[in-house]
Amino acid sequence: MKRFLLLSLLTTIPATAQTPHWSFQSPTGQFDRATLKRGYEVYDQVCATCHGMKALTFAELSGIGLSEDDIRKTAATKQIPDGTDAGGQPKTRAATPDDHLPSPFPSDEAATQALGAAPPDQSHLAQTYEDGPTRIYAYLTSYGQTPPPGLKIPPGRFYNPIDGAKITAMPPVLTDDATTYSDGTKATTAQQARDVTTFLAWAADPHLNQRHHIGEAAILYLLALIVLATLTKHQIWRKRP
Ligand code: HEC
Q1: Count of Cβ atoms closer than 10 Å to residue 31 Cβ
Q2: What is the pLDDT of residues 147-183, one digit of tens each?
Q3: How far apart are CA 202 and CA 40, in angstroms?
């Protein structure tokens, strides 16, 4: 029974052929830092053109392995709103590590006007749906199929069987080499989808790694207790001659 409990605690949900295996979803699983770093590059170079990520500060990118210096430099390349100038015109300034990641559109209305629909903020996108990471991955890799007969796709819209309405205003953005990876990884559609999905899962739950480390320590502690308890029990109930 103990063995069974432990096994069920430590084994992971089996992955299907199409979707990657999400290592971070097992009880002691961790986010892989190299994957997270690549995922941020996909987010930054592709998704951030349309989607924002308001809940995350640049400083928190230390969680994906960026150094303080990397973070300062990354932030400094982004412009964020900074009130208005004397003539009432909106001003911007370079971001600092304490700033939140910028949103590309000032409002949902402006985004809808530009894109036909407002792209949701991605801070918690991986938690919006049950099994969010698998759904995001599927969403990104399900473009280009032939729509069922009878489904008319209006101009500027795209067939995507994963979308609730099967028709989306988001174009197929993850084409091969849409991202330039700094570690030289080949940016296939599947690679980018896997990396950015992992990054989005991290962004929605940046403290998972620490929590899972604590979980591992707790399991070891419990195992030690079981051993001690078993030994004590044998000691107490030992048949005396
Ligand atoms: C050209 C602009 C654009 C880019 C770039 C873009 N998106 Fe989107 N995205 C949209 C729009 C617009 C919607 C809303 C679609 C709708 O409601 O019809 C959307 C919706 C989504 C959805 C569906 C959300 C839901 O509630 O079903 C996901 C998932 C998504 N985007 C992920 C991404 C990821 C990840 C990236 C980067 C790899 C990305 N998007 C890049 C415009 C974009």
Answers
A1: 22
A2: 999 999 999 999 999 999 999 999 999 999 999 999 9
A3: 10
Distance 203 CA to ligand 1 centre (A): 16
Residues 6+ apart with CB under 8 A from 204: 123, 124, 125, 126, 127, 132
- Asked if 31 and 202 touch (Cβ cutoff 8 Å), the reply is yes
CA of 228 to the centre of ligand 1 (A): 53
Which bin fits 78, alpha (ψ -120 to 50), beta or left (φ > 0)? beta
**CA 178 remoteness from chain centre:** 18
Banded pLDDT at 129 (limits 50, 70, 90): confident
Output the CA angle 203-44-98, nearest 5 degrees: 60
Q: Which residues, judged by CB distance below 6 Å to any ligand atom, belong to the binding site of ligand 1? A: 42, 46-47, 49-51, 115, 117, 119-120, 125, 136, 139-140, 163, 168-171, 173-174, 196
Please list, in sequence order, all residues whose beta carbon lies within 8 angstroms of the beta carbon of residue 56, skipping any fewer than 6 positions away: 100, 101, 123, 203, 206
